[in-house]
Amino acid sequence: MKPVVSPEKIDHVGIAVKSLETAVPLYRDILGLPFLGEETVDSEQVRVAFFRLGEVKVELLEPTSPESPIARFIEKRGEGIHHIALSVKEIEGELEGLAAAGIRLIDERPKPGANGTQVAFLHPKSTLGVLYELCQPGKSN
C-alpha cells in the first residue's frame, strides 16, 4: 500500500511557552542548543524562537494575543509539546491526498509560516491525538 503522505523528515517539534524571555535561556544556556533566531508569525499570532538539535529544530511558540491558538492551548493544557512538523516537498498535493483519505484538515490551504515556509495543520482528532504540521520549505531554505 502506498502511503498518502511522503514526509522527508521531522522538521521541528513545536513547544508552547508563556514567555520566550523565560524559555530561551533554558534551551540555549542550560540545554546548550544552538539558537537559530526569533521572529513573529502574524498568521498564527505567535513569536517563535528556533534551536537546532541534530537534524531537527525545536520551535518555542509564545502567544502574541490571548485569542491565539497557542494562548488557548496553554490555558487548556499548560506549557509543553504542541505539535510535530513534517517536512514535505509539495504541500498542496499532500493536503489533497490527506483530504481524499478522510483526514480532517485544520488548514485546507497552506499559509505562511516561520522562515519563509508554507504550513498547514492536520486535526488531531484524525491523527490519534497528535497535532501534525506539514511544512514546505521556502525557496531560500
TrEMBL record:
Presence of the UniProt keyword Metal-binding in the record: yes
Keywords: Metal-binding
VOC domain boundaries: 9-137
InterPro entries per record: Glyas_Bleomycin-R_OHBP_Dase (IPR029068), MeMalonyl-CoA_epimerase (IPR017515), MMCE/EMCE_epimerase (IPR051785), VOC_core (IPR037523)
Molecular function terms from GO: metal ion binding; methylmalonyl-CoA epimerase activity
Family that this chain belongs to: Belongs to the methylmalonyl-CoA epimerase family.
PANTHER family hit by this protein: METHYLMALONYL-COA EPIMERASE (PTHR43048), METHYLMALONYL-COA EPIMERASE, MITOCHONDRIAL (PTHR43048:SF3)
Name of the protein: Methylmalonyl-CoA epimerase
